[in-house]
Please model this.
Amino acid sequence: MSQQLRVGWIGCGRMGTAMVKRLIVAGSDVSVTNRTRSKAEALGELGAKVVDSPRELANCDVVFIMVSADAQLVEVTSGENGVLSDESVVPKVVVDCSTVSTETSAHVRSACVARGAEFLAAPVSGNPKVVASGQLTFAVSGKREAFEIVRPLFEQLGHGVSYVGDEEGARLVKICHNMFLGIVTQAMAEITVLAERGGIKRSSLLEFLNNSVMGSTFSRYKTPAFVNLDFTPTFTPVLLRKDFDLGMAEAKKLSVPMPISALCTELVVSAIGAGYRDEDFSVLLLEEARSAGLVMEPENLVVDDGLGLK
Model:
């Protein structure tokens, strides 16, 4: 069924590109567009059809969106050349994989419904390397019937898709996920600095941690960055701060105390203030080391990240 669907894709950044590649390999008929056309053209060389604007994807059955901010989501859906701007045709289902606020998601959902299109909020857990390894996961909310239409495509894109209910539930799930991501990374940074201050190599501590009941796919994946101080970005402190801000706003609205999350928010803000904007958010390790007066050096070891890709 999935190969019969005409798929449109808006947003060909690192994540969007990695995800489209999986659809192409799986045999899907994909048309793509991106604000910077050259990024889309790289996918055109792999077999995707490149179009100039989201408006040109209106005749697709399913249109995926992967953009970086609320305003961009509104622009590519309801904007002058958005996917909903053609008065004669709209997609059957619009699927947004971005991390945006519940308010913006609800606004876009209403715009889609008003035009006769279904809307699924489908934020993801992963980064381009996780996508390439086939371990991307989705939290999805919206009408169950729309979810079942898109499910085969989700299964091409990754290995786990969780339907979490109607409307904007998936947004809150993703925000909670990303806050946890930051909290775990800060905790890893603190114990790693403590161990190194006590004379333990980072690689030794993290090897023990990863082989214990406390180890996880995430801790193993971040181990090379911690050991070799390679902060090639997968997710930046600026984007992490955005998600902490979204989460803390939801916590205030729902009257949920979040003391650890509040502290981590400030630590991320501090890292950004120290100049870490474009590095991977695991650079929280360096900020923790600086606070402890510890100068770290790369261990320059080959470390398995657990994803099966080098």
